[in-house]
Amino acid sequence: MEHPITEKQIEFFKMVIKKYEPYPLDILNKIRYDENRYDENRLAATWAKKHLLEHGIDINK
Prior knowledge:
The protein has helices at 7-19, 40-54. By secondary structure, the protein is an all-alpha fold.
């Protein structure tokens, strides 16, 4: 079951994505093995991007 996402969360995630360039989404499958090699802020932006896309939210708006 998917949890709803609030407008406040959407706004925050978009701010993170704008401030820190996300990695390509396929990197998320690889970080389990070498998480320390990636920038934490960019990882947060990547997770935010993935979360928004999973909820069908356009990250470019």
